[in-house]
Amino acid sequence: MLRILLPALVALFVTACSAKAGPVERIYLSPSAGPQVVTAAEELDYHLGKIGAAPQLVRTDDPSAVDGPAVVLGELALRMGAVPQNASESKEGFRLLSQGQVLLISGESDAGTLFGAYELLERLGFDWVMPGEIGEITPAGPLTLPRLDESQAPDFSVRDLWYRGGPRAVTGEDRQRLDVWLRRQKSGDYKPAAGAVGGHVWQRFIKLHQAEFDKDRTMYALRRNPDGSVTRRGPQLESVHPRVAELMAEDIRKTYEKNGWSKDRPAGFPIGPADGDGYSISPEALAANSGAVDPITGELDQTDLIVRLGNAVLEQLGEEYPNVYLGFYSYGDHAGYPQRYRPHPRLSVIFAPINFSRYHSLVDPLSRGHPHYRAVVEKWAALRREQGNALFFYGYNWNLAENMLPYTKVRIWGEELPYYHQLGVSGVIIEATKAWGVNGPSDWLLMKLAWDASQDWRGLLDEYCRKSFGAGAEPMKRYLLRLAERQRQAGQEAGSYHAIPLIYDQAFVGAARADLAEAKRLARTPEQKTRIGYFEPSVELLGQYLDYHQAANRFDFPAALAAYEAMHATWKAAYAQNPDIAAREAPQYLERFIGPFVKAAAEQAPYIVERLPDELDTAFGEEPQNWRPTRTYSTTWDAQRLKGNTVWYRYRFTTSQRPLYLFLGSFNDEATVFVNGRNLGSSGRLFSQPEIVDMTPALKEGENELLVRIVRNQSLNELGVGGLFRPSFLFSR
Fold first, then answer.
1. Cα(388)–Cα(346) distance, rounded to whole angstroms?
2. What does the alpha-carbon distance between residue 59 and residue 158 come to, in Å, rounded to a whole number?
3. Which pTM does this prediction carry?
4. Of 144, 167, 184, 601, whose CB has the highest number of CB atoms within 10 Å?
């Protein structure tokens, strides 16, 4: 981002930088000022009023009527000479220009003027570290206007953070508070025609044309069933079928006609697959693809086929629609770079690296998965430089499928956003969970960098802590940096709950508690102490989660259940304290991924006959051979560097107990049980849920052999999690 100090005023600024205008007495704007300029005036009035100022709002178009000390906004400031010096694609640039006792604020658009007003407030010491009044940082008054001649424009044309989860996770009031916070952090609503159009749309496309798909079922993807047979079905489609590209082109033409758009109007349309797996294995699709395999999922990479489809749709539209842009997510099994087809210049990409490390930035050399993806990003960036393809980044602010334990992306954002900006990525879109007691520092730092990616993340973190916690800043910064460094150095990539016990221990919890206690003791204002307190629930939850995990691993399932229930209680108290600090859907994750296991295990605990050991004989592949020991519930596949779609476990036991049942704690994601060679059936897809199998009919006197086959079923439930990953046992009742 460019910050321009006009040469003619350099000497004045250097020799008289301490010279300031007096306190603001008036705020001027045109009688015809638009809503955003009016909001700028109201925000200046509100914030200055918090320090005792009472500026008068004056509407005039007459520059000669302006009397300082004052702030002049919008068109009137532009007429008085505050012409923005930096152009931006989103027209959000602004200029702050001092003229005697007057500060002019004008933007390329009304949005630019509004952002210029927020820049002034930040220069005066105001800020907003989280939504709501508790997040408002107010300096001590009285304040005087600084002398400025500065132009700014955003580094990313799209800067958006949005709450996921719908009404079940986020209330209307939650969204309203977020909207105000985002506006104050200079997040605009600019939507470029050439990008941010990468949604999962194939399932909607099929529904829109259901009759035609049902008439010609070869338009559906050809998918393999669990029994080995194949069938044509959704949610994916046969992208190489010529009628698919024809229908997509027809839909675009109809959209232009329905909206009354001229055919040269710029517009973007998504063409991406449905979320998940199930891509076509038809001979036509396999022949058209490049044959590249995704190194994370182990499945055929679909990027070439999506590029082929996009090229075909644009070819159908021809020169009649010269400004149609198509886009898709670089995501899941289509996160590669095309090897066979060259993307059309109007095919844009949104990087959504959901399959890569939760704990490292894209440029972090400690990540095992990111070097591959970084190479993909850099190839797309080279194509952008060559022919102009638009690139965007779609990220996530939380440790996916787990949003209540300590987690931070301050270093990740601090390293990634400057890198993406350097490569020419145009926008940043972040899917967020509402948990400001966990993600607050990361979210604040993200928005600062999205505007100006040249800033150092460590300096920003220091600023955040000083503003948020006052004299308690140092211990809070120590806690956040220790958290970031522990995540990075632990050597883990798997997210959700699975790698947590491999990264943190009770000593970390104790150190965190001590940091927060010291920060609270040092903080001087009730607001600072309250904001420090918002971080306490996640630390307590971490301690309780470790208690749960340790109890479960020693097969003390009643104690594990008690810790699980304590996590619910801690979350509930945090949410009651302030709904912004705790994710409303956190209990849903607990109930979905942990509850079924711990409740069922506690129920059967009195009847345990034999525990399956953590380390089991293991074989990979369709047939069990080349056995070797691997661990199950004490670690992850990621930590053991294991990969595979089919895994076998073997356990031999002798018992006279009848009846006898097998309790499989959790697995990824379909288990078939064999006892003494007899197939006792399959579980179906039950990721992170237990399964109970009656082994009695297959038992014999003496030694018995148990084989468990687990198939991943082409579904990436979480990074580096496979096979058995929670305690299992034999029981009788």
1. 8
2. 32
3. 0.93
4. 601
